[in-house]
Amino acid sequence: MPRSLVGGDLAVPEMAQPYMKKDDDDEEVEYSPFFGIEKGAVLQEARAFHDPQLDVRRCSQVITKLLYLLNQGETFTKVEATEVFFAVTKLFQSSDAGLRRLVYLMIKELSPSSDEVIIVTSSLMKDMNSKTDMYRANAIRVLCRIIDGTLLTQIERYLKQAIVDKNPVVASAALVSGIHLAQANPEIVKRWSNEVQEAVQSRAPLVQFHGLALLHQIRQNDRLAISKLVSSLTRGSVRSPLAQCLLIRYTSQGKLQVMRESSMNTQNGDRPFFDFLESSLRQKPEMVELEAARKITEMDVTSRELAPAITLLQSFLTSHKPVLRFAAVRTLNKVAMTRPLAVTNCNVDLESLMLDTNRSIATLAITTLLKTGNESSVDRLMKQITSFMSDIADEFKIVVVEAIRSLCLKFPLKYRSMLNFLSNSLREEGGFEYKKAIVDSIITLISEIPDAKEIGLLHLCEFIEDCEFTYLSSQILHFLGNEGPRTSDPSRYIRYIYNRVILENATVRASAVSTLAKFGALVDTLKPRIFVLLRRCLFDTEDEVRDRATLYLQTLGGEVSIGNNEKDANDFLFGSFDVPLANLEASLRTYEPSEKPFDISSVSREVRSLPLQEKKAPGKKAPAAAAPAPVSAVDAYPKMLSSIPEFSGFGKLFKSSEPVELTEAETEYAVNVVKHIYDSYVVLQYNCTNTIEEQLLEDVTVCVDASDAEEFSEICSKPLASLPYNSAGQIFVAFEKPERVPAIGKFLNLLKFTVKEVDTSTGEADEDGVEDEYQLEDFEIVAADYMLRVAVSNFRNAWENMDPESERVDEYGLGVRESLAEAVGAVINILGMQPCEGTEVVPRNARSHTCLLSGVFIGGVKVLVRLSFGLSGPNEVAMKLAVRSDDPEVSDKIHEIVASG
């Protein structure tokens, strides 16, 4: 436990126990004073707080143990917490400063309830008015963390006085407390503006820093007030380095748009806020200079305006302080992502940092050089990096590998040296994530650079000979089966593949058999040889391997009818399996054996999540399900709807949405809606639950206002006759719409019913009822409701098998976004498609990303989408959208959906 926590040296020999040796041959043992302590034993020791003659040393030890348990996540029951709290309050009678500080910490950590706070308030208020400044500061901090709004008004006067106290420790404590209190009691804290304004002018650095933070929080919702505050302070009245850094951040906050407003409102072209940032580049200490440089590099400025910040960062690259070198190279690394030419002047200094003893600095220097280097410097960089890689951890190696991949895509003619580097790295020691990053990089380069295919595949084949990771071996074999047959000499890969059948585990052997079959299907000259090898696999000890070999032999030999022609056989081998396994399993479980064979085309292709649970009233029994609950959730809605005569003529159900909640949680009526989409109709299923025991609802219906959905016309509704307590029922409203058109619109909903009072003792309802209504939330039918989330197992093959004539490509500006990940998620939600191959996950700090989506549009049209995202400015996201589908008109509609979304 650090000395700052316990208030002095705290010897605890009775707790010291060995828990780890430094080395097997080293006799020295490390000790932890907290090893093996138990909550029950410590609570027993806490009885020492009740002793008439307090043992300060022992009490300090016990509180230290309690604090350790709390910070390790140990939970105390209500009784235990109350007993400890009351025991700790008795320690206020001690005048020992170290013990008092521990008492303050303990009260904060226990977070007493409102009735317990009253007991300790008098002691804390007494300390707030103490002559000992340390008592005053700590008491203020504790009191403001545990007090509620009703008691806050009683101590407000003391807090306002403390803000302008001459002692900076007390003033700072009051300001920090104000920052915490402003979150729950903003109106009270706003009344302290004058005192906080005075604190901002304080000569004490920490007081000025905390004062500025609190004043900004008070005015954060008033953009004009913030602008005036920043304007007044940028004239030089801020002396605290921490406050200066805070002010720099305020001037460049995007949400305040201070910089933009400044440039727009100044007619003579001056930009006082930018001038302030530029002048801060020359303000000591270094933390202020770095903060100003970092903010300038994040702004949309010209090369001339950026130059002073780059020059400052370059000077820090040769500093003797590691923290300055790290901060500078990290900032330059970010600049190099978008403006590499601005960093090229720093390359000489960056090369010297490649030998820095701090591996983080060296890694950032290398990755920055890889982003700023030119084609002529690639070979030299590769040689330097080779000697560097063996000295760093895997996490740094992965960063370097990803940077090399980006550099190779930038200079494709240098693929040989980079592939050689990656191949050599595969032979070095490293964990799974590191090796996977290399394999993924090689696969990417093979896919993007046609000339690199054969060399890259050979490198992967050589690696697979010694690969100890099953997943990577299977991944390489799968990729080899897709790409190998299309090379100039496919036969060279057969030996590597068949060696996997002989030497590897069952999983890899099965993958190798599938890869051999793909070579046999695509390369006629290799088919006899493949037949021989597959026959050998029939004697394998693993069922999966033998079954695959048998199936592929019969398929390639024409003994099993996969389709009408060779194309059908190739689709079987190479095509994507677009049926979700969960849906297939559910359909197989409900299949009843008969003369009619199981038809896989009847299985839903939609990737569905688990049904939402019905809401229930607190403390009451959960209501019955809002809809029948068959074995398969996928089959539930079609069976239910087809059994209703009014909807039997609507045709095949295309899609059912997830339930959309139309009421708040814990209300008297719980209602959600499911949107059932047909080619020419939409059926709205309102699932209703009555959670009031004293009421019976009859003649329950939903009045739907579709005036904001012009393409929909209501054709019928099916009300609910009765809705007793703790039961659920369904109300249906059907609309007609243009056939196979993704019509959208907003629907307003009003629940109408007759309420009858129920005698809870007898369960009988009154004969007379009262008509009533309940306003429900609005909801929309959006374009995503007309798209099924259907996965494909091999996106690239599926994309290439689509007609290129159906492809439509366009570029879009998505505006300012919080992050690249947020932009990717927004487009996925608009389209309602299924992300493929994990591409919905955006790597941290990525400046560009490609996302692959698949789905089936209404009418049964398969759609594939490739989204390419990039940052074109500060949080400005640009997107390239490429669509292929079975119908070119649908490709155009996808673009229309994105353009209107």
From TrEMBL:
It comes from Urochloa decumbens. It holds the Pfam family Coatomer_g_Cpla. Residues 637-781 form the Coatomer gamma subunit appendage Ig-like subdomain domain. It is found in: Cytoplasm; Golgi apparatus membrane; Cytoplasmic vesicle, COPI-coated vesicle membrane. It is a peripheral membrane protein. The keyword Cytoplasm applies. The keyword Cytoplasm applies. Oligomeric complex that consists of at least the alpha, beta, beta', gamma, delta, epsilon and zeta subunits. Its main location: cytoplasm. GO terms for biological process: protein transport; vesicle-mediated transport. The coatomer is a cytosolic protein complex that binds to dilysine motifs and reversibly associates with Golgi non-clathrin-coated vesicles, which further mediate biosynthetic protein transport from the ER, via the Golgi up to the trans Golgi network. Coatomer complex is required for budding from Golgi membranes, and is essential for the retrograde Golgi-to-ER transport of dilysine-tagged proteins. Belongs to the COPG family. It comes from the Eukaryota. This is Coatomer subunit gamma.
